[in-house]
Amino acid sequence: MPVYATPEELNNGFTPAGNVLEAPSGFDVPLPEGTNPAPQQDEPSVWGAAFRQNNLLGQMFRPAKQFEPVEGYNPYVDKNELHGYEQWGSAFADSRSPEETAWLKQQIDDENEDRRVLSEAGGEGVLASIAAGVVDPVTVASMFIPGAQGGTVARIASQAAIGAAATAASEVALNNQQITRTWGESASHVAAGALMSGVFAAAGAALSPSVRTAATREVADALDNMSITSATDTAAASLPEGGSVGAARISEATLEDLTPAAGGPVGKLARKAGSYLTPFTRLMESPSKTSRRTALELAENNYTLRGNARGIETPIAAETRVRGWRREEAAVVVTNKQAYSQYKAAGGDLSFSQFREEVGNAMRSGDVHANPVVQEVAQAMRTVVNRVKVAQQKLGLLPPDEELKAIGQESYFPRVYKIGKIVNERDKFRDMLVDWWSRGEKTMSREEAEITADATINKIVGAKIPQDFANVFMVKAAGSTRSRTLSVPDRLMKDYLESDANYVLQRHIREASAEVELTRAFGNKSLEKQLKDIQDEYDALMRQNPKDQAKLAKARDNDIRDITALRDRLAGTYGMPDDPSSFFVRAGAFLRSANFVTKLGGMTVSAIPDLARGVMVNGFGNTMRGYSALITRSPAFKASRAEQLKMAVGLETILHTRARTMGDLVDSSARTTAVEAGMERVTDAFGKLTLMGHFDDMNKSVNGMITSDGILSGSFAGRRLAKLGINDNMAARIRSEFEKHGEVINGWHIGNFEKWDDQHVAGVFQSAVLKDVNNTVITPGIGDTPLWASTPLGKTIFQFKSFATASYNRATLGGLQEGTGQFYYGTAFQIGLGALTYALKQSANGKEVDWSPQKLVIEGIDRSGILGPLMEYNNMAEKASGGMVGLGALLGTGTQSRYASRGFIGSALGPTFGLLDTITDVTAGVLNGDAGDRVLHNVRTLLPGNNLFWIAPLINQVDPGMR
Predict the structure, then answer these.
(1) d(Cα 776, Cα 555) in Å, to the nearest integer?
(2) 3-state helix, strand, coil in the chain (%, to 5)
(3) Which of 445, 750, 768, 923 has the lowest CB atom count within 10 Å?
């Protein structure tokens, strides 16, 4: 066979770049001389990661290293030592050598790698997690724990308790094994354990405890994914600026257009029954077009208007835009929390409250502090403060920087005074002001300074909200006809100023945002023009209808009263007493907080019917699709969740605003004593222990995802879009922006609204989503409660009842006006969940469940909230008459379970009077030596957290009053 030479270059000068055939490959192809084959790299094991993360055996046999301690070694001395590991800084506290520190770092890296592998594995990761749960020792052990015998609900309740206990035991062990596992994750897992165990028990014996445990972890992980990781980037995005969002076609609306849709005969009857309840329902029946429009521009609502059907949009309410500022609040809370973790990891010894005060002091001193972490967080907070300050200054609500410096502020930090301290030390505070003005600054004589100091202190003590503090030093000196600004340096008044950065900035944002949005929407915060227009319109109506002058005059007075009430509620001043620091006002607020922490431990279980609201609004298919995205941890859900945080949707885990609103703890008066400040911290901690924030965020995130998708995809009907503030023109502009900047992930439309060219359009989109979520997951607002409920006494009597009227306004009336089929079958579903809640609570309390159909229906209606205050009136009538009057007597079902344990006083006058009645009973029993079962049970009800749903079943076992 001839051998042909292979030329390096062909005759035509072309040098071949390589063989046209594929290069040989395979195990039998020799490597170039001197080259060793690279070792084969193993792919990350999804199954190994699942077992290490979700099974106690996964790391039980991890070898425990022994390290030689190095004398004087401290991992926190060199800040580069823990660079990149600051989040887990506390894990290195016991490290005694560089080798041990390196070993801990490796463990953290391994755990994070396992998390990444499971997250990217998709369906295989879910399957692996289920398999890991099958052989978990605690799961296996729980299979041998007998549940309660008897009816279905008893078995469900017992399985929920077993699931919670088993998950808690497993989580304690896993927390000890894993550095990166947080107690927040564990709390989510325990809550999900109880929930999933109950759900699976209800489904029957087809699902094993092992599958239940694995699914529990999946739900808990979805809950935990709701946490915020970046405060400044995620929660502190600036609010969109621009023209009035209420402009466009609303300007051409007639009185007929601004009339609520009928909703059929039932809708008309329901609207008439509730028309007297709240200021908003009254205003929507007004003969004045200006009154109706102003109400719509003020208060967030769920009304469908007749004009919506022809494309006239409901104006976006100032209240909705104010709620959008809550992301700034969340930024403050999360930034401080993350910074404190870094501070402690670096060896700091201050408590969290002391740390926040140091941040506040730094912000008063040019954002400079001796501690670098404190200084860094003060500088980060400056971004939030400046956003609020600039918005106020643009509208003339805050003096320019030069004037702020003139009153003695080195760098702007809102002044919130310690009212109680000033009242108790009035003479000392007065002398300080007098000495500074007469001798330090030498701006006036001592006699003038004394008169001016008294006037200033009276202004401070009488201020209703901290925003009033900005002008307390604008005074008229004795003998002068002009006001002037007097300087008092912050350093001089430091002991009389609140410094807690969380407290000051959260209050400042909450109250300044109301002024900003009122001014943006109406030209000024007093609504002067709108009130005059209402007056003028009624004058014209009286001239046209002289026979109805008296009736119209009364309607005019009522409209003006209700409009000003909505305005003042939004500003936080309505119903506030002349002396907010008086003992009785403060005592009432303290007792309401005590009611919250002693009576609402089961609020999360009571909120189970909320799950049906998504079905009522969005239909069963869309709702199940949304919850499926959450449970499977879909990339679309993660992207949507991140975007919704920027809309202020789903911040309940951080701020607990819905739970606090439903508990009637929203109060604009300043705290004055250490006891009151302590109670505020207790209510905050209690709110976290109820897990209501996680539950609310889960529901809001899913429904927000559905709403965003419906708007961006164009699947929502024009009438629904108009109801959300989007007319045809705006809908086209939103879709145009989405086509340029949005994306579709797994069939879900994600807007990426921060990239939109027209930020006014982005603002309308955000407000529409926020409004729809607040209406779907009922979040009471300024127009949802009677006016008398805003007085100090009214707040006490009406406590825990705001949800009833809000549900009636937003769910019942709003749903009937929409008139969709999904509202009616969703209502049936909600009643069913209400009946389930009744049965669960009865079983958890060791009480017999009445399985009669009429009892289940009436309990379901009561707990669903669909009839709102009508059921409250019925329940009070039953309690007052001893069960002789009301639906219970008519159907033979007795008093509703929600009122069964309440006395007549507590039923009629609210939980505070019931609390005082209980205290009186306990005191009398102790003094008389009668500490029987009833007294012991009453003592238990006075303990904070005594009825937390995950601990109450255990306490019930030893509570003699529950036997």
Answers:
(1) 32
(2) 65, 0, 35
(3) 923
- The 10s digit of each residue's pLDDT in 647-676 is 999 999 999 999 888 888 865 445 556 777
Written as one letter, the residue type at 639 is A
- Tokens at residue 909, please? 């006058």
DSSP state of 497: B
3-state SS assignment for residue 485: strand
Q: What is the pLDDT of residue 188?
A: 52
**Paired tokens of 55:** 């099974």
CA–CA distance, 366 with 375 (Å, rounded to integer)? 10
**Beta strand residue intervals within 438-544, DSSP E:** 474-476, 483-485
- CA distances in angstroms from 937 to 901, 903, 932, listed in the order given: 11, 14, 9
Q: Please list the alpha-helical segments (H only) found in 851-910.
A: 853-864, 869-880, 887-891, 897-900, 904-909
Q: Residue 680 has what pLDDT?
A: 82
Q: If 0-12 CB within 10 Å is exposed, 13-18 middle and 19+ buried, where does residue 775 land?
A: buried
Q: Is 549 helix (H, G, I), strand (E, B) or coil?
A: helix
Instruction: Report how far residue 923's alpha carbon sits from residue 658's, in angstroms, rounded to the nearest whole number.
Output: 35
Cα distance between residue 653 and residue 334, in whole Å:
11
Instruction: List pLDDT tens digits, range 437-473.
Output: 888 777 788 898 898 888 888 888 876 655 554 555 5
Distance CA 670, CA 512 (A): 15
Are the beta carbons of 944 and 597 closer than 8 angstroms? yes
Q: How far apart are CA 14 and CA 467, in angstroms?
A: 83
Per DSSP, 92 falls in state: G
Residue 778 burial class via C-beta count within 10 angstroms: exposed 0-12, middle 13-18, buried 19 and up: buried
> Exposed, middle or buried: residue 22 (CB in 10 Å: 0-12, 13-18, 19+)?
exposed
- Are 341 and 758 within 8 A, CB to CB? no
Q: How far is the C-alpha of 861 from the C-alpha of 867, rounded, in Å?
A: 7
Among the listed residues 112, 145, 129, the one whose alpha carbon sits nearest the alpha carbon of residue 192: 129
Whether the predicted pLDDT of 544 surpasses 60: yes
Q: What angle do CA 19, 20, 26 make, to 5 degrees?
A: 70
- Strand partners of residue 484: 475
| Bridge partners of residue 483, in order along the sequence | 476
Distance of CA 576 to the CA centre of its chain: 25
Distance in angstroms (rounded) separating the CA atoms of residues 336 and 890: 56
List the one residue out of 94, 369, 230 whose CA is nearest residue 355: 369
398 vs 817, residue with greater confidence: 817
Average pLDDT over residues 626-653: 93
Mean pLDDT of 264-290: 93
What CA–CA distance (Å, rounded) separates 148 from 839? 14
Q: Are 635 and 746 in contact (CB under 8 A)?
A: yes
At 749, is the secondary structure helix, strand, or coil? strand
Phi/psi-derived region of residue 860, left when phi > 0, alpha when psi is between -120 and 50, beta in every other case = alpha
Strands (E), 361-455: none
Cβ distance 770 to 324 under 8 Å? yes
Cβ neighbours for 347, distance < 8 A, ≥ 6 positions apart: 74, 76
What does the block give as tokens for 263?
């909703």
Using CA atoms, how far residue 445 sits from 113, 366, 440, 442, 477, in Å, is 72, 32, 11, 7, 10
- Give pTM, 2 decimals: 0.74
Distances (CA, A) of 223 to 447, 637, 641, 699: 63, 12, 11, 10
Q: How many residues does the chain have?
A: 963
Amino acid 811 reads A
d(CA 150, CA 153) in angstroms, rounded, equals 8
Burial 876-914 (b: 16+ CB within 10 A, else e): bbbbeeeeeebbbbeeebebbbbbeebeebbbebbbbbb
Handedness of CA 711, 717, 722, 727 (dihedral sign): positive
